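#struct-help
A.M.: can someone run this one for me? Single chain, 271 residues.
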Amino acid sequence: MAFYYAAAFVLGLVAGSFANVVIYRVPLHKSIVYPPSQCPNCSAPIAAYDNVPLLSYLLLRGKCRRCSTPISLKYPAVELASGLLFAWSAWTYGFGRGAVPSVRSIVAAVFLVALLTLAVIDLEHRILPNVIVLPLMIFGLATVGVSVVLGAEVLPLIVSPSLASWQSSLLGFALGGGVLLLLALLWRGGMGGGDIKLMAGMGLFLGPYVLFDLFVGVFLGSIAGIYLLAVKKRTRKDLIPFGPFLVAGAFVTLQWGEQIVSLYLKSTGLA
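D.P.: on it. Structure tokens below:
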């Protein structure tokens, strides 16, 4: 099975390379298809042999072949993270017949790499572009619809025993978007429309556990905010992008959410 996980990792590297194109071009309102990849500094076209995910960065020693401008470490980091997310999805949700990744593995991988892309864009530009968030939401809704028609259970990625799959996903959609919308109305300027749409879309994939994701996101965001205030890199008036913390919360939720919630309910006598 190690070969199949390695194959998933390599496929994830390729997805990460494409994610880098999206991360760079979408905020600048550039086409993600044309022109082909080029150096942001000298505009020299990047040859195919210099565009191999992760490997080319190492062989080029992190510099453009033409102008020797340092290549941001962000590019190999995104590729590596994407590869690991694909491998993790295959490990967690398994393979179907003939060692082909299961539908849930593929859906999870696409979901997580899309979130990774949004997190990096939000960190750099403090925006969550509709051209990524809305297709992710449509992808989730379409997956739920197809699952209902075929009688399969694909979403949410965390199954709720008390609800049918489609009910769980739609409840997550309503909770994710609804809670942040309420917070935005109560705390004007503290929550962007992109965060609300992202949370609603994430609810389709996480179901009711989207609330746990929100809890983790707020917790991580608070820690980051306190740290930045302590080292004086931010003031109380500065806004910190919330998207990356929601994205981190999504992975924590998928990996440990069920166990943490179950442990909490048992410790409080609620289960």
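A.M.: thanks! The chain has two domains: 1-125, 128-271.
D.P.: also worth noting: The chain has nine helices and no strands.
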